């Protein structure tokens, strides 16, 4: 486990970012929350000189975010939005096909869609909505875009994937109930955290030239939950964001989170393979890890069967 750096040190390191090529970065869930924070930090430090693709549902939010990016000096740089409801796997397939038609190489893929709900609701794919957002859609994005990430590495460029959820806070998964049909809401949520850990192990096993990262960003002030119908989610939003909340001083700002997680992507995950990083972009090693080779292979096969034909 590596000690975290201070925010000022992290900003200083992020400011040194340079690429000998025009990087391609895809942010799924990049129109709000932590994904937005990382996308904005990436745009800021590349001075807009990158292909940046935001994937999400909110077109107006995406246009506003893109308009705030620094104007690139490179005529080849593009900042794009692809509208996609990632709860449906057919939408993910359509979106990845569109991305691959535009970009044969991808350097950075950041996945942060979704928030755990406490009610069970299946999508038309027959998958629980929380599980679709927090695991299955992420797996399919990585699987579909892996050839473009591999191509980037073949050309000696960065190829890194970050899934934003809760590394280090999972539980031992039930290999006899991978669809989580018997799990309580709390167990379901913590199992999906472990699924993200084990997912990254599976991809690193099958695509060893790429860096696969699962992060725990901690408690971050985001707008998620502000317009929810759930009293629990609205209460969580208040506790994280209201200046009148006794906990308002605790969460990290979106901008600071973006700085820390970008640092984790660029510097902490320094080699291909599996990485798990904490709220400061620091390496947390195997802390709170519940996977093994059997879980990796069993979950991989289950997910392959559940997603590839969709």
UniProtKB/TrEMBL annotation:
<dbReference type="InterPro" id="IPR002347">
    <property type="entry name" value="SDR_fam"/>
</dbReference>
<dbReference type="GO" id="GO:0016491">
    <property type="term" value="F:oxidoreductase activity"/>
</dbReference>
<dbReference type="Pfam" id="PF00106">
    <property type="entry name" value="adh_short"/>
</dbReference>
<dbReference type="InterPro" id="IPR052228">
    <property type="entry name" value="Sec_Metab_Biosynth_Oxidored"/>
</dbReference>
<keyword id="KW-0560">Oxidoreductase</keyword>
<dbReference type="InterPro" id="IPR036291">
    <property type="entry name" value="NAD(P)-bd_dom_sf"/>
</dbReference>
<protein>
    <submittedName>
        <fullName>NAD-P-binding protein</fullName>
    </submittedName>
</protein>
């Amino acid at each position: 486990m590596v000690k975290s750096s201070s925010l000022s040190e992290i900003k200083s390191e992020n400011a040194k970012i340079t690429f000998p090529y025009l990087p391609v970065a895809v942010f799924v869930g990049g129109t709000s929350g932590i994904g937005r924070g990382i996308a904005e930090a990436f745009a800021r430090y590349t001075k807009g000189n990158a292909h940046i693709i935001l994937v999400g549902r909110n077109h107006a939010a995406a246009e506003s975010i893109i308009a705030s990016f620094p104007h690139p000096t490179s005529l080849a740089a593009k900042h794009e939005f692809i509208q996609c409801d990632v709860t449906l796997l057919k939408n993910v397939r359509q979106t990845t096909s569109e991305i691959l038609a535009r970009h044969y190489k991808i350097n950075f893929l950041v996945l942060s869609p979704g928030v755990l709900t406490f009610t069970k609701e299946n999508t038309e794919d027959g998958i629980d909505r929380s599980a679709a957002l927090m695991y299955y859609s992420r797996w399919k994005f990585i699987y579909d875009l892996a050839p473009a990430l591999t191509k980037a590495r073949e050309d000696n460029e960065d190829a890194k994937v970050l899934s934003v959820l809760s590394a280090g806070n999972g539980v031992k998964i039930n290999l006899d109930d991978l669809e989580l049909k018997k799990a309580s809401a709390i167990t379901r949520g913590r199992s999906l955290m472990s699924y993200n850990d084990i997912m990254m192990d599976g991809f690193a096993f099958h695509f060893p030239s790429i860096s696969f990262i699962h992060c725990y960003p901690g408690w971050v002030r985001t707008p998620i939950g502000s317009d929810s119908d759930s009293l629990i989610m609205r209460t969580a939003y208040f506790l994280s964001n209201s200046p009148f909340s006794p906990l308002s001083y605790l969460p990290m700002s979106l901008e600071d989170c973006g700085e820390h997680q970008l640092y984790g992507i660029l510097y902490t995950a320094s080699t291909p393979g599996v990485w798990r990083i904490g709220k400061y972009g620091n390496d947390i090693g195997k802390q709170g890890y519940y996977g093994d080779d059997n879980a990796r292979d069993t979950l991989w096969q289950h997910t392959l069967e559940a997603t590839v034909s969709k």
